[in-house]
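Proteins fold reproducibly. Next comes a concrete instance:

***
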Amino acid sequence: MKEELFVSGRNIPNIDPYLHIWHWQIPIYLFLGGLAAGILFLAAVYTILGKDKEMQATVKWAPFIVPFALIIGLFMLFLDLKHKLYFWQLYTTIRLESPMGWGAWVLMIMTPISIIWSASYVREVFPNWDWKFKFLYAFEAWVIKNRWYIAWPMAIYAVILGIYTGILLSAFNARPLWNTTILGPLFLVSGMSTGAASIILMSKNHEERRLIGRLDLLFIAVELFFIVHMIMGFLAGSQVQIDAANLFLGGEFTVPFFVFVILLGLLLPAVLETLELIGFKVPIIIPAILVLLGGLIFRFIMVEAGQVTRYLY
């Protein structure tokens, strides 16, 4: 039986062979990529500012998550590929207009940087750690000496990685919901927020948690601004863009979007973090977990909802 697709108020046969080929792998990949970008960006910024001693979880502990997040994210992307044996062609075929090509190279750069950054802290975190190969001690010493210089490209590529997770969707011009320039900055800020939430969960320093909590409040405010801006932009556009906005304004994604993303994933964590900052005792684990879950659900909703609408030709 043919699938039916709701477009501009009408049911039409689904003749697009690429519709609904993205399932759970891509949202997880986008989430982990944004999370990794947020952690590495904050680690790099505080290293550049010379606050690496005060921000131990930000600079030292949280980056240990990143190599695993990137590797799992790449594996999710690999699982989603139709022709898995030809993934290497992303690195041999240079197409400047290809978001997948840009993303492949950014991940190729960021993954070893994240491993090297974390490895330079291994012996601080695990005092009994011993490198089996002696040359690694010299390399470790060089990395430690030059962390400040490494932090600059790490911060830049972290921003590119965070934006890329949104551009990967917005490059699909045939999907009205994804065809917006706001998606890159929106996913970047959302990734920064989930990265900040991860740091809050790992930090044992009250002042560090308060500082990262303030940053997370800023990220949440900017993310809400971008979401409102995106929806208002759709409502001011063509009919298919209005239909895309209506998916969240009375359509099938209204309840999960406003309950799990806006309310539980953004507003409630913002309120709890504000209460904690002004002196109330709030278990910091609650808003941090809500931000992480909200960021993950947001990507599931955006990926799924983006496949529901299409332009009519």
Summary: The chain is about 70% helix and 5% strand. The first strand starts at residue 4 and ends at 7. The chain has a mean pLDDT of 87. The chain has one domain: 4-306.
